[in-house]
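W.,

You were right to be curious about this one. When I first looked at the sequence I had no strong expectations either way, so I just let the prediction run and decided to look at it fresh. Below is the sequence, 217 residues in total, followed by the output.
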Amino acid sequence: MKTFLVIGLGRFGIAAASKLYEMGYEVMVIDQSEELVNHMADACTYAAIGDARDMEVLRSMEAGQCDCAIVAMGEDLSASVLITMNLKELGCKYVICKAQNEMYKRALERIGADRVVIPEREMALRLVQSLGSGSFHDYIEFSSEYAIAEIDPPKDWIGKSLKQLNVRAKYSVSVLAIQNQKENKMMMSPGAEDVVSEGDTVMIMGKNKDLARFRKL
């Protein structure tokens, strides 16, 4: 089972920790606020009061053995930088940081953060992308070049298998999942013989320029 460490229990940290725990992962949280830590006690595996800028505190949380640490203290750049450096020194496999703006983002990337997110900007981009086309339910950009989109399949896809559609060759995108909305069932990594049915939602991944073509279908 993957282990996550969430540092900082603002709205972003609480939302991330709660969702990961709900998904069945082992989630540890740390914050200096006793009130916030007590609030999260039943929504995580382990909650601790402490200052994550202190290397010994991170060691006590076994941060170096975590699969992923989320540094959710986006407003305090100096704290985020120090914590990220300490996490990397301890051997944490993957560090995600919240940033307040592009300047903070660049600074955190330079000192070793594996991924830096600006939540407000990313939410705005997802909203704009979904509003830009009625066929897009959701749009998640995970780099400047690639994204994942949740779409209503084109009409000529209905009743056809992925082999017949030959999506990769025709559209340069990959089908990650097919969700049957009527039965509320999700088919992950569908095979060539799996069929797209009426009412399904399809999750696809590809370059932004290739996904943009689906707005015209």
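Here's what jumped out at me. The chain has a mean pLDDT of 86. And, maybe more interesting for your project: The CA atoms of residues 54 and 83 lie 8 Å apart.

Coffee later to discuss?

I.
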